[in-house]
Amino acid sequence: MKLTRRSVLAASAVGAGAATMARAAPTRNAARFSLGFAPHEGSFKSRGNRLEQIAFAADQGFTAWEDNEAAGRPVEEQVAMARALQQRNMTMGVFVASMPRWGEMRPLLGGNDEAERQGFLADIRASIDVAKRLNAKWMTVVPGFLDRRLPVEIQTGRIIDTMRRAAEIVEPHGLVMVMEPLNTIVDHPGVFLQTIPQGFAVARGVNSPAVKVLADLYHEQIQAGHLIKTMEICWNEIAYIQFGDNPGRKEPGTGEVNYQNVVRWLRAKKFAGVIGMEHGNSIEGRAGEERLVAAYRAIDAA
Predict the structure, then answer these.
(1) Confidence (pTM)
(2) Which 3 state secondary structure label does DSSP give 216?
(3) Going by C-beta distance under 8 Å and a sequence separation of 6 or more, which residues neighbour residue 253?
């Protein structure tokens, strides 16, 4: 074949494009992340089913996984997921122990109806077997909604009492309920627990190692901000962390939160727990999955 200037340039361009794709493409058996970042089903949905996504995440160096919906999955699926994580030496993160009824804005754990609290405690009892099947230590709890007819101080006292009763159920099993404050400005108007400091107050009131706070930094950034300072003040009651940038609730680097600084701070605190990747991907498909991995590589290197 006769080489012309055009053909040489074209070949060079193809080679450069291939090299770029090779650099960008996820690799098998990549170095493990230094922090316990935990994807979830859907983070890598182009790679197949849940178990295949777990295998892919492990190949990219992720060391943990979380699954909010795990309690509602068939037992055989829970067991299969736990086995897949164990085979890959990955830690199981949170699942939701008691799912709020969003449309009804229930339960009202601080309200006057004791049946609401009993229903919540029944969910907590049922979650023990789920946690054991999943080899999970942490379970997410959303302590209900505000009752607009009652003073918030009365509701706070009742929720502390309810969480104390829940602690008596799970503490003998070595499990930890992490209460998640949610923002009311964008996503969840009407919830009782709205900020990390409020969660700190409830956890202190309960005074049990089985009741701690889940610091979801997406929600906290919307509701109050001051992320690092807030975590510093409330650190003794925080047991689990979730990331998500704002606005948009996508991967770090897509919004206003300086997650490199957050990671530096967590590393200085010697945080060795799970950090849930509680967000979507900013780009659909494999390109978005590659961007997701790259975003976490960038902040992990901070």
Answers:
(1) 0.90
(2) strand
(3) 245, 259, 295, 298, 299
CA–CA gap between residue 219 and residue 215 (Å, rounded): 8
In sequence order, which residues have a C-beta less than 8 Å from that of residue 139 and are 6 or more positions away?
94, 95, 96, 97, 127, 130, 131, 170, 175, 176, 177, 178
Sign of CA dihedral 61, 64, 69, 70: positive
Residue 237 makes CB contacts below 8 A (sequence gap 6+) with: 199, 200, 203, 204, 212, 213
- Of 100-109, 200-209, 244-253, give the lowest mean pLDDT range: 100-109
Q: What is the mean pLDDT of the chain?
A: 92
C-alpha 178, offset from chain centre:
11
Between 104 and 23, whose confidence is greater? 104
- pLDDT at 28 (0 to 100): 72
Paired strand residues for 145: 191
What does the alpha-carbon distance between residue 44 and residue 126 come to, in Å, rounded to a whole number? 30
Quickly tell me which residue has 């727990």 as its tokens: 273
Question: What span, in angstroms and rounded, lies between the C-alpha atoms of 227 and 220?
Answer: 7
Buried b (16+ CB within 10 A) or exposed e, 283-298: eeeeebbbbbbebbee
Contact 85, 135 (CB under 8 A): yes
Half-sphere exposure of 60 toward its Cβ, with a 13 Å CA cutoff? 29
Q: What is the crossing angle of helices 75-87 and 50-59, to 10°?
A: 20
The predicted pLDDT at position 3 comes to 39
CA distances to 14, 31, 57, 285 from 288, rounded to whole Å, are 23, 20, 14, 5
29: left (phi over 0), alpha (psi -120 to 50) or beta: left
**Burial class, 221, CB count within 10 angstroms (exposed 0-12 / middle 13-18 / buried 19+):** buried
